[in-house]
Amino acid sequence: MTSIDPVLFLGCSLLLVAVSLTALVVAAFPAIQDLSRAARSAEKLFDRLDRELPPTLEAIRLAGLELGDLTDEMSQGVQSATTVVRQANLSLSQVTKQAKTVSTNTRSVWLGVKTAWQTWRNTKESPPRISPVDPAVLPQRRYSQEE
Question: Quick one: average pLDDT of 29-43?
Fold first, then answer.
C-alpha cells in the first residue's frame, strides 16, 4: 500500500470546502434577494410613514381639540337647557297658582252674580215691605255743648 500524500489530502479538502461554499451561496442567493426586496419595501414604507404620519397625527390632534370644544359647547347647552327647564317649571307653578286664584275669583264672582240674580228675582216677585218708622223708637242722639 501506498501512503496517502498529505498534499493530495489538503487539495481534496480545499476542493470540498470550495464546493460546499459554492453550494451554500447558490442556495442562499434567493434568500438574499428576498431580504433585499424586503429591505427596499421597508425603506419605502418608512419613507411613506415619514411623509404621511406627521399630517395624520396633526389631524388627530386637531380632532381632539375640536372634540374638546364640542364637549364644552354641549356642556354649556345642557346647562342652558337646564336653566330653561327650571324657568319653565317655575312659570308653570306660577301659572298654576294664578289659575287657582282665577278659579277662586271666578267662583266668587259667579256666586255674587247668582245671589244678585236671586235677589233681583225675589224683589220682582214680592215688593219689599216698608215698615213705618216710629220716631219714638229711633235712638236719639244727645248733643252736648262740648261737641
Answer: 94
Tell me the C-alpha distance between 112 and 105, whole Å.
10
Give the span between the Cα atoms of 118 and 112, in whole angstroms.
10
HSE of 75, CA atoms in CB hemisphere, 13 A: 6
- Where do the domains of the chain lie? 8-87
Backbone φ, ψ for residue 145 (5° rounding) = -80, -15
Is the model more confident about 101 or about 37?
37
Q: Which residue has the higher pLDDT, 122 or 146?
A: 122
CA diameter of the chain = 190
- From residue 7, alpha-carbon distances to 10, 20, 114 in Å are 5, 20, 148
d(CA 99, CA 87): 18
What average pLDDT score do residues 81-98 get?
Answer: 91
pLDDT at 118 over 50: yes
Place of cell 297658582: 97
Position of cell 219714638?
136
**Whether the predicted pLDDT of 54 surpasses 50:** yes
